[in-house]
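Per-record layout

source: Actinomadura viridis
name: ABC-2 type transport system ATP-binding protein
length: 304
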Amino acid sequence: MIELHRLTKRYGPILAVDDLTVTIRPGRVTGLIGPNGAGKTITLRMILGLTTPSRGTARTGGRRFADLPSPMRQVGALPGPGTLHGGRRAYDQLLCAARSNGIPRRRVDEVVRLAGLDRVAGRRVRTLSFGMCRRLGVALSLLGDPSVLIYDDAVEGLDPAGLSWMRTLLWGLAREGRTVLVTGRPLSELTQLADHLVVLDRGRLVADRDARDLEREYAERQVLVRCDDPGFLAGRLTGACAGVRLGTGGALLVSGLDAAEIHRLAVTGGIRLHELTPQRSSLIEVCQKLTRNGPGQAATEGAA
Ligand SMILES: Nc1ncnc2c1ncn2[C@@H]1O[C@H](COP(=O)(O)OP(=O)(O)OP(=O)(O)O)[C@@H](O)[C@H]1O
């Protein structure tokens, strides 16, 4: 479990993380998401003891990172860029990390199998593909058999096969009862991975919800309409208190009325319908609605 209590990081007037209290629970994959500058990286850095909070605490398994007796056995993280030794064989990279943390060699063999590295373990790191390097990072993070996994940029750059592998792996690790926290981009792929979402905006918590519940609650139902007289139909729809936006190719995106009501208004107005398709906004659109719909800056002191 990861517990953040009133976690705050201030850089002068900038509140990068603002009084964040949230618990990341075991048994599920939690996605930490938010627009650029929302405070995701700083939050992860505070959990991993790389940045000192201005106020509040970040604890994993009840302790601050600096107080963990054997961090590699409690928390597994993907290595940052440039951390892997290009001239070393993948297996030796793992063995070296294991030895310096008092981890037996048989665990190296286990993580090689878990990460699907069997065929490339003898190759030098610089000769591995991007996807294989990511698998090596995963193997390193699992060496200490930690109960908490924190993966920044878990899916960035992965092809569909790599993404599917990562999803299966992380869900498996979560089902074993581990705490799994992922962040990074792209949002579309991260939201496919996470079954719970913690959404930040300007350093503040805006949602801490089951991903599907969030989608159900906030997703705006819309109906896409194509007809022979969109201007006339739009007038009738707004007259019936519907929200109407113009889509591509003259289509109307209608909210606030269901397809049957739209159909009735079109028919009684003598309008011929070509398409009437109910739609739902995606989880990405929900997250954009919850935040500021795009990049921005962290909160500054005194800002509303
Ligand atoms: N060392 C620093 N000094 C001053 N401000 C900083 C520092 N590090 C981060 N910030 C600011 O803190 C805010 C949060 O940054 P952070 O990197 O955590 O955002 P993020 O959500 O990870 O964004 P992105 O998605 O772009 O990586 C940003 O406004 C950033 O400019």
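summary: Residues 11, 14, 16, 34, 36-42, 297-298 surround adenosine-5'-triphosphate (CB under 6 Å). The chain has a mean pLDDT of 89.
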